[in-house]
Amino acid sequence: MLTQVNYEVKGQLAKLLATEDLIIENRKVSTASFDVERRVLTLPMWEKASGTVYDLLVGHEVGHALYTPADNWMSDYPNVPPSFVNVLEDVRIEKLMKIKYAGLTKTFYNGYSQLAEQDFFELESHDIDDMGLADRINIHYKIGNFEDVSFTTDEQWFVDQAFKTNTFREVLELAQKLYEHIKDEQEQLTKFDELEFSKGNEGSSGQGMPFQPSDMDSDIEMEGDTGEDGEAGQGEPTNIDSNLQEDLEFASDDPTGGLHGGVEGAVTDKALQDNLENLNKKDSGGSFYEPEYVELPDLNLDTLVAKNNDVHEYLDHFWTASQRKFDEEVTNPKNIFEKVDNDYRLFRRSAQKEVNYMVKEFECRKSADAYARATVAKTGVLDCTKLHSYKYNEDLFKKITVLPDGKNHGLVFVLDWSGSMSTVLMDTIKQLFNLIWFCKKVQIPFKVYAFTNEWNHYSEWDQPDEYSWRSKPNLPAHHEEKSCRVKVESTFSMVEFLTSDCKKSDLEKQLLSIWRLSTSLSAYYRWNPKICFQAPRRLNLSGTPLNEALVSLNQLIPEFKKATGVQKVQCVTLTDGEAHPLQYNKLFRFPNEEKDYMGTRSTMNGSVFIRDKNNGKTYSCNSHQHELTSALLNQLRGRFPDVNFIGIRVMDGRDANSFIRRYMDWDFDKVQNIQASWKKDKSIKLTDVGYHAYFGLSSHALGNDTEFTVKEEATKAQIKSAFKKSLSAKKMNKKVLSQFMDFIA
Length: 745
Description:
With 745 residues, this protein is α/β, with parallel strands linked by helices. Helix content is 45%, strand content 15%. The chain has an 8-stranded mixed sheet with strand order 5-11-9-8-12-17-19-18, with helices on both faces. It has a 3-stranded mixed sheet with strand order 1-3-2, covered by helices on one side. A 3-stranded mixed sheet has the order 4-15-16, covered by helices on one side. A hairpin with a 6-residue loop joins strand 15 (608-611) and strand 16. The model is unreliable at 204-261, 283-287, 401-406 and 704-708 (pLDDT under 50).
């Protein structure tokens, strides 16, 4: 019974054998192949092949990867059949692989044993002794342990030389000699056949010499020595001549050259390839598309990133215009931002407890880690307090504890700026601000990006009520479009909301501006008549291009590390839902068209793999939204092993259940355990689901206004309820923040 082949494992095996980080592609192809120029090893997705046969092919093709050069040899040897070179080169590279990895000898033996049992070389219908020399060499070195192959003295020289070849050039020279040898033999055989044929004609022309078939013609059916009238030599010679002519034509048309072998090529090599192709069940119920390997684009950050100064200059202009417009339309002008700004100041004051708690947790964990790595060293200075013990104690010197320098940290925040965030936006912003204030207190560099499709899409304007759907024409592309490359739309932007680079006073002003913006977009305030302003169109909520944001981190993280000089980066994503699918470019051609056109195709068709061109690793996108996001996160983790990727998911009870089931792969026991934690703490923590840690937080329990406050006329029950609510909120916040600090410190 065949077991399912783990393609990822076989790919890693190939890399280990090659001692090279090859690019591995698993495709629905007939057999394995290796592109020596691109260093791409293509492995077939066989469903009917055993693991042993698969290992055989992997070892064989890695041999080509290691030892077969990318030479255009056909121009120097135009007459040599490629199958001759392939047969002889197979002998050389398999010999070298067995020398390099002794364990492969058993793998090759067992693999070819299975292929022989299944008659992959199609020997049951052929007599091996009647095959051409190239075919017999191929059989001898591949399945000679299971099949007897005989050679003449002249032929044995080629068999021995095939094993002695050490370089590809020697293989080519031997293939040329093999071709010339077989060609000479066939020419001699043709002359002999013509001579015999001529003699036969003379015997049938009435000269009294009956036709005498040679040994090679003994299988030709004849009427006999007597005709219908019983007289000798009175048969129909035309029938005999016709049969002989057909036999000669057969010998010339047969790729093996009939009984003696020809120069057209080795049929056993072709038979092996054809039968290997049958192992690949192309329409096996999986994806409609063939596996596709796509790469991430090199993005132009100048067009992709909306710089911090530009963003807040735009916001300041809009707030000023909004106030001016309000003053012009009412008789009693007022500060339209008064209430919102006061709310911000109250929150800032109340949040200091949580911020101080994070600072305390961070410093404690940092100190604990430092002392765990501490070493004790002798100073060479006598400790006078130990001199009295010199008779029984040799340790009389002072010691010093050496604390290694810890790595400096930096944080990159990725904020979801999608329409669904409107119900939890303010709660998310509160969590973000807590983290920003924490970073400022412990002097950790940071960047805050919001991902959106709105910033580039719309034109700039002066009037705050300008809400036309006028989009910018001819948006600059973020990258060059190439086939099999992920496409990032020109409308996508990473908006740089906040950065540690600016002054303290500027940062405070920017925080207030973001608070105003979030308030105006919050569903809670959207229809509140007390709010007299709206958000600018370019910073309105959009779709959920989370996946595009993750793609952009491949360049934003190195840029952040270079600018700040940090060694350890924490990348925190704050979101409320799943991302929309990614597209990739693909060349297509319509029927009856001569030119290709560049189209797009979804990455979520179940057969797309993202390949990191930096390390050659591949990541399956699968066919579900969260799986694509997990693949992109795994790609980031593979490329940046020194970065912690943390997710914070803000959700309500309805979303929590589907979220838990989705990421627990519908495992009943796991789901039950996580759901119990959610009911108790209104928070959960998932690990290794793309993110190193994925925190699920209740949107209803996130409020930082956890002070114990009740009305004057409150009853005992109301007071008790308010007190429990206050304690519960504080407990939840502290638990989550403590877990978060584990990663930061």
